[in-house]
Amino acid sequence: MAAPYILVLYYSRHGATQAMAQQIARGIEKQSGIEARLRTVPPVSATCEATAAGIPGTGAIYCTEEDLRNCAGLALGSPTRFGNMAAPMKYFIDSTSALWMTGALSGKPAAVFTSSASLHGGQETTLISMMLPLMHHGMILCGLPYSEPDLTSTRSGGTPYGPSHVAGEKSQAPLTEEEKRLCQAQGLRLASIATKLTSE
Fold first, then answer.
1. Do 9 and 39 meet the contact criterion of CB atoms below 8 Å apart?
2. Which residue segments constitute the domains of the chain, with CATH numbers given?
3. What is the rounded distance in angstroms from the CA atom of residue 182 to the CA atom of residue 199?
4. CA-to-CA distance for 10 and 111, rounded, in angstroms?
5. pLDDT values of the chain reduced to their tens digit, one per residue, 200 residues
């Protein structure tokens, strides 16, 4: 029997959200008995009838409905777009009605993460925008508690709603050490809760 996994599902245009996803996966794999599965979603094109390649050229492969259906938990990440999740992630989430109708995700833990160009670039509203469909799916939201000391010392990203990153105007800033630790803490917390729930 395959080990249970946390699905780390993200969209990343310039690489910052992908870097966060990788740190969250590291945190997940600190928990024994559970794995991280990295997946992404294709971009949305403004050109009619445009289609993406079946497998992306770089990074994680595209998420399938089965990846989502069979996960033990979900970490959902998107860059900030005017205080909201990016269109490719919203497009993908909007396609999950079949899972909603069957309650496939109900009772499973979930967390959200984001990246923005500036410190006040709408990180918290973006995180909340991703929480809303997860609540409709009946998922259990797992934020970051203030028992994580980096939440009170960070001068970059990090929120109690979920990890965040300040990428800079040209998306060139690497993750800070605090941001890395908060991503890993979120991954570990999500994996720990998923492990407890699946063992009941």
1. yes
2. 5-39+57-199 (3.40.50.360)
3. 26
4. 12
5. 678 999 999 999 899 999 999 999 999 999 999 999 999 999 887 666 556 666 666 778 899 999 999 999 999 999 999 999 999 999 999 999 999 999 999 999 999 999 999 988 999 999 999 999 999 999 999 999 999 999 999 889 999 999 999 998 888 899 999 999 999 999 999 999 999 998 76
Placement of tokens 């989502």 in the chain: 68
